[in-house]
From TrEMBL:
Name used for this protein in its record: FERM domain containing kindlin 2
Family membership noted in the UniProt record: Belongs to the kindlin family.
Localisation per UniProt entry: Cell junction; Cell projection
Boundaries of every PH domain copy: 340-445
GO biological process: cell-matrix adhesion; integrin-mediated signaling pathway
Residue span(s) of domain Band 4.1: 93-541
Organism domain of life: Eukaryota
C-alpha cells in the first residue's frame, strides 16, 4: 500500500490510478480526481460533484474534451473507451448556454440553446420555441450562419435583451424581461419598418457574384454541435432560411414564418443580394410602404384581430400558398384526356457571335414540353424550321413593363453545354401563358399539370403590380409623402440615380396597385414576387470544374445544379436532381462528384469553402424533396443526417 502514492514517469500511480484534470466553468475552479481508465463517465461526474461539495443542480452539466472537441455524453462509456488519459483536460460545463441571434428581420434576441445537440436539433428546438408549438418548421427551417468579420455589421446593438440569472430549462428565448416561452411570441409576426438609412449603410452589400459566394462560406455543419464548431457562449450568429423551398406556407397558421420570410426577402433586395429591375424595385418598395403603414396602424389590435383578418382573405390567398413546386393542387380536374397546347406568332432570336441579326417571327406551337417553330401558320403541318425540347432548360424572364418588352430567355441543354434561345411575346397575356408553359416544361411537366393555371395567374399578378398609375388624383400632397422615407425602401443604387422626391412619387404610383391588400396578403405577394426573380434560390459557391482552367461558380437550387461564369453569372450547363443517380465527396481533395442517369458525370473541387457545406446543400434539397405534403409530419432527423453528414 505504501507504493500507492508513488507516481510513475507516465503520470500514473503505482496502483494504476492517475490524475484527471478538470475545470468547472460555473465556479472558475480547477479540480483533479484520482481515476482509472475503467471508470465510466457518469462515475467521474458523480465523484466530481461530491468533491466540489456545492449545493447546486448539476443535471444540465456534462464533460467536454477540449483537445478533441468532443462531448462525453455517453455516460456509460469508460475513460479508456473514449481514449482519455492523464494528459487530457476536461471541462465540466452546462450544456444549455446563451446565444445572441440575429433574426431575418435584423433584430437581435438572446436564446438559451443546447450546445451539445447537433445544430439541426438545436435549430428545430429554437423554431418550436418561437412558434410555441411542436409543429415542425416545414422544409424551410432556420439554420445558423457565422457573423463573419467584414461581412456583417458588428455595431448593431441588440433590440431584444435578456433577463440574467434565468433558470435552466429547455431552449428558451427572451424579449425584454420575459422569457419568450412564457410571453407572446407573436411579436415575431410583426414587421417593423427600417427607422433610418444609416442602418442600411452599415450593412455589408455584395458587389459581385464572388462576394455572394464568400457569404455562403459561413453556413454551419448541421450534423455537429455548436461547441464542436467553436461557437462560444453569447456569440452572435445569424439565423436565416437556408433552403429556398417553402413547404405548405399557410398564412393562417404560419404568421411568424411568413413575416420572417418577408423580412429575409426584403433585406436581400435592399442589400442587393439578389438582382431586380427598376420597375420591380419600385413594386417591392410600394409593398414595403403598404406593409409598414398597416403594421403601424394595427400595432395595438392586429394580433387580436389577425385570425378574423386571415379568414376574410382566405379566398384571395388560396392561390398564394407556396409549396415545394411553387404551386397548389387545383380542385378542378379539368379535361384529363388531352394535354393543352399553345399556338401563336412568337418572335425568336438565336444569339450568335459576330451577328447583328434580330428577332425573326415564327408560328410557334407548344406541345407537351416541346416548342416547334414554323415560317407560317400554313406550314404548321410540315417539318418545323426549329424545334426545342425544354426538359432541363433554364428559363429566365427579361421584362420591362413601360417599354412593353416581354422576353423569355431559354438555355437548353445540349451535349457540349447550353444553347441560348430568346422568345419575344407581344403582350402580357401571351407572355404569361408561354412563360408558365416554359417553366413547367423545364421540370418535365406539361400544361396539363394542375399548377399551370395558377402559374399563369401568378405571372399576371406579378406584372400587374409593376404597372404605374400616373393619374392626377393619386398625386399626394407633400405633407403626405413625408412618411414614405424612400431612403429605406429602395436599394442604394437607385438613391444614387434619382432624387428622393422622384423615388417617393414612383412609390406612390406603384402603391395604387397594392393599396387594397390586407397585411398578410401584401407579405405573401412580396414573397411570391421575390420567388419570381431570376436569381431567386440560387446559392453560389466558388469551384473549379474537372477539365476547367479557371475558377467558376456552382449554383445550387432546390431542383438543380448550375455551372456558371464567375464574372457574368451566365449559366454554362445545368443538371437536374431528378436525373441524378448519386453523389460522392472525396474529403481529402475537396472534390464533389455527381453521377447522372443519361449524361456524363460532374466533378468539381470546392474553392474557399469546406465541401461539407456544398454536400449539405445538395443532401438537404434531396431530403426536402422526399417529404410528403403533410403538415403534421415531423422532421426525420436520421434521414437528414444520412443525406448530409460526413461519412465515417
Amino acid at each position: 500500500m505504501a507504493l500507492d502514492g508513488i507516481r510513475m514517469p507516465d503520470g500514473c500511480y503505482a496502483d494504476g490510478t492517475w490524475e484527471l484534470k478538470m475545470h468547472v466553468t460555473d465556479l472558475h475552479r480547477d479540480v483533479s480526481l484520482r481515476v482509472t481508465g475503467e471508470i465510466h463517465v457518469g462515475g467521474v461526474m458523480l465523484k466530481l460533484a461530491e468533491k466540489l461539495d456545492v449545493k447546486k443542480d448539476w443535471s444540465d452539466h456534462a464533460l467536454w474534451w477540449e483537445k478533441k472537441k468532443t462531448w462525453l455524453l455517453k455516460t456509460h462509456w469508460t475513460l479508456d473507451k473514449y481514449g482519455i488519459q492523464a494528459d487530457a483536460r476536461l471541462l465540466f460545463t452546462p450544456q444549455h448556454k446563451l446565444l445572441r441571434l440575429q433574426l431575418p428581420n435584423m433584430k437581435h434576441m438572446k436564446v438559451k440553446v443546447n450546445f451539445s445537440d447537433r445544430v439541426f436539433k438545436a435549430v428545430s428546438d429554437i423554431c418550436k420555441t418561437f412558434s410555441k408549438s411542436d409543429k415542425p418548421c416545414g422544409d424551410t427551417f432556420f439554420i445558423c450562419i457565422y457573423s463573419s468579420p467584414g461581412l456583417y455589421s458588428k455595431t448593431m446593438t441588440p433590440t431584444y435583451d435578456s433577463r440574467d440569472g434565468s433558470p435552466l430549462s429547455p431552449t428558451t428565448a427572451w424579449f425584454g424581461d420575459s422569457p419568450l416561452s412564457e410571453g407572446n411570441p407573436s411579436i415575431l409576426a410583426v414587421s417593423q419598418p427600417i427607422s433610418s438609412p444609416d442602418i442600411l449603410a452599415k450593412l455589408y452589400k455584395p458587389q459581385s457574384l464572388l462576394d455572394k459566394a464568400k457569404i455562403n462560406q459561413g453556413w454551419m455543419d448541421s450534423s455537429r454541435s455548436l461547441m464542436e464548431q467553436d461557437v462560444k457562449e453569447n456569440e452572435v450568429l445569424l439565423l436565416r432560411f437556408k433552403y429556398h423551398s417553402f413547404f405548405d406556407l399557410n398564412p393562417k397558421y404560419d404568421a411568424i414564418r411568413v413575416n420572417q420570410l418577408y423580412e429575409q426577402a426584403k433585406w436581400a433586395i435592399l442589400l442587393e443580394e439578389i438582382e431586380c429591375t427598376e420597375e420591380e424595385m419600385m413594386m417591392f418598395a410600394a409593398l414595403q410602404y403598404h406593409i409598414n403603414k398597416l403594421s403601424i396602424m394595427s400595432s395595438d389590435n392586429h394580433m387580436n384581430n389577425s385570425e378574423k383578418e386571415v379568414d376574410e382573405v382566405d379566398a384571395a390567398l388560396s392561390d398564394l400558398e407556396i409549396t415545394l413546386e411553387g404551386g397548389k393542387t387545383s380542385n378542378t380536374l379539368g379535361d384529363i384526356t388531352s394535354i393543352p397546347e399553345l399556338a401563336d406568332y412568337v418572335k425568336v432570336f438565336k444569339p450568335k457571335k459576330l451577328t447583328l441579326k434580330g428577332y425573326k417571327q415564327y408560328w410557334c406551337t407548344f406541345k407537351d414540353i416541346t416548342i416547334s417553330c414554323y415560317k407560317s401558320k400554313e406550314e404548321a403541318h410540315g417539318t418545323p424550321s426549329l424545334q426545342m425540347n425544354l426538359r432541363g432548360c433554364e428559363v429566365t424572364p427579361d421584362v420591362n413593363i413601360s417599354a412593353q418588352k416581354f422576353n423569355i430567355k431559354l438555355l437548353i441543354p445540349v451535349a457540349d453545354g447550353m444553347n441560348e434561345i430568346w422568345l419575344r411575346c407581344d403582350a402580357e397575356k401571351q407572355y404569361a401563358h408561354w412563360m408558365a408553359a416554359c417553366r413547367l416544361a423545364s421540370k418535365g411537366k406539361t400544361m396539363a399539370d394542375s399548377s399551370y393555371n395558377l402559374e399563369v395567374h401568378n405571372i399576371l399578378s406579378f406584372l400587374k403590380m409593376q404597372h404605374m398609375n400616373p393619374d392626377p388624383q393619386f398625386i399626394a400632397e407633400p405633407a403626405v409623402t413625408n412618411d414614405i422615407n424612400s431612403e429605406c425602401l429602395v436599394s442604394p443604387r437607385y438613391l444614387k440615380k434619382y432624387k428622393n422626391k422622384q423615388i417617393s412619387a414612383r412609390i406612390l404610383e406603384a402603391h395604387q396597385n397594392v393599396a387594397q391588400m390586407s397585411l398578410i396578403e401584401a407579405k405573401m405577394r412580396f414573397i411570391q414576387a421575390w420567388q419570381s426573380l431570376p436569381e431567386f434560390g440560387i446559392t453560389h459557391f466558388l469551384a473549379k470544374f474537372q477539365g476547367g482552367k479557371r475558377d467558376e461558380l456552382i449554383g445550387i437550387t432546390y431542383n438543380r445544379l448550375i455551372r456558371m461564369d464567375a464574372n457574368t453569372g451566365d449559366a454554362i450547363k445545368t443538371w437536374r436532381f431528378a436525373n441524378m443517380k448519386q453523389w460522392n465527396v472525396n474529403w481529402e481533395i475537396k472534390m464533389v462528384t455527381v453521377e447522372f442517369a443519361d449524361e456524363p458525370s460532374l466533378a468539381f473541387i470546392c474553392a474557399e469553402v469546406d465541401c461539407k457545406v456544398v454536400h449539405e446543400f445538395i443532401g438537404g434539397y434531396i431530403f426536402l424533396s422526399t417529404r410528403a405534403k403533410d403538415q403534421n409530419e415531423s422532421l426525420d432527423e436520421e434521414m437528414f443526417y444520412k443525406l448530409t453528414r460526413v461519412r465515417d
